[in-house]
Amino acid sequence: MSGASIETTLELWASSLREVKRRMRPLFTQARVARSAEHFLDGLLGEERRKTGWMRAEAAGDPGPWRQQAILGRGQWDADALRDIVRDYALETLADNDAVLVVDETGFLKQGKASCGVSRQYTGSAGKITNCQIGVFACYVAKRGHAFIDRELYLPKSWTDDKARLAKAHVPPEMIEDAHGGFATKPALALAMIKRAIAAKVPFAFVAADTVYGVGDIEMALRRAGKGYVLGVKSTEPFHSWGKPQLISGTAKEIADRLPASAWMRLSAGAGTKGERLHDWAYVELADLDGDQYGEALKGQTWTRGLLIRRKIADGDLAFFTTWAPQGTSIGMLAEVEGHRWAIEDSFETAKNELGLDHNETRSWHGWRRHVTLVMLAFAMMASIRVHANAAAPPPKRMRRQTKTTRRRNRESL
């Protein structure tokens, strides 16, 4: 995790765990329920590979899983209040005005039809259509680290059209429809999370997401808020320029095909596990717009709408992104913003493999939200520990030798 000593890291673990437990304790009206929630968190952070009710109960010393199950089911507490605690806790360590809010989804493979939101649907987690739940998440990605700060369970139409099924899973009526009274799509869920982040004054500069979230209300909400974006779009999405010396018009794919070789440059989208993630990139500026069109607070600002294109070096495969950024933002910056999306993929993998994100055994709407939010708290705690452990690590030996040399020279100069 870090270069800090084992003793320092263990102290950080102990103090951080005490702190997150202290923060979530007021959510529970009874001390015994609060203790069960603390044991639940201990179980998520424990060594057991499967974070089932029985495994967590065994780790807590309970005779059976019912206390752990009650935290997700029968207990009375607000998972959204815990979500806000997670967000605020993560920001205390990670907050950065240049951060990127990444929105993406992940699948939770399931058997049967009773679990809330389960349906045969496509999930990238399995790479196919299968029986699963889909969760939409917002991940805060900054220089010091990343953590989940929001989540929603997606309900397909096979659920929203079945009132009896919704009632059995205890789904609140307000969660079924979007702001316009229609079916709550994945972009609608993402937009609600983005608006919550903006309302909570979460510091970030850009939003990054894939093609599911690329065109629509999200764009306009971010423009009005003075936030940039790099959002995936399909190759068939039309683009047109105005107010530029060269007229550009056509689908994203058509525009890419017409670009000269000189328009492409090889850039890194950030460091991955195997080194820099290099691709060929092209960027087309479409229009410069006055910010005051979208809000009084943006008066005097100029923003550029553009099309960012990524080409794989190995096979030439293309990906397209609609962009909105302050005038003068470089292609390198936009490529870096898009590259922040790897962080949420890494977060999903870590949260599933180490913290049991997909080990939820409940069938209700609130059970899913409670389990997932507790995992988010555990993940945020780990992110905070990593930052503080790295800060506590001693400098490299070479740096220490240089420091001693500097001190000696300073003494000699006196």
Question: What report would you give on this structure?
Answer:
With 414 residues, the chain is of the alpha+beta class. The chain has a domain at 226-341. The protein has 14 helices and 12 strands. It has helices spanning 6-24, 31-45, 53-60, 66-72, 79-94, 157-160, 163-168, 186-199, 217-225, 252-258, 331-339, 341-355, 365-392, 397-413; strands at residues 100-109, 119-123, 128-142, 145-154, 206-209, 228-233, 238-240, 249-251, 265-272, 275-290, 302-311, 318-326. The strands form 2 sheets. Strands 1, 2, 3, 4, 5, 6, 9, 10, 11 and 12 form a 10-stranded mixed sheet that branches. A two-stranded antiparallel ribbon has the order 7-8. The protein is globular and about 75 Å long. The two termini are 42 Å apart.
Helix content: 40-55%
Please, how many helices?
14
> Structural class, from secondary structure content?
alpha+beta
Largest sheet: 10 strands, mixed
Which whole number gives the mean pLDDT? 89
Q: How do you describe this structure in short?
A:
This protein has 14 helices and twelve strands. By secondary structure, it is of the alpha+beta class.
Strands, helices and their partners?
Elements: H1 6-24, H2 31-45, H3 53-60, H4 66-72, H5 79-94, E1 100-109, E2 119-123, E3 128-142, E4 145-154, H6 157-160, H7 163-168, H8 186-199, E5 206-209, H9 217-225, E6 228-233, E7 238-240, E8 249-251, H10 252-258, E9 265-272, E10 275-290, E11 302-311, E12 318-326, H11 331-339, H12 341-355, H13 365-392, H14 397-413
Parallel strand pairs: 1-5, 5-6
Antiparallel strand pairs: 1-3, 2-3, 3-4, 6-12, 7-8, 9-10, 10-11, 11-12
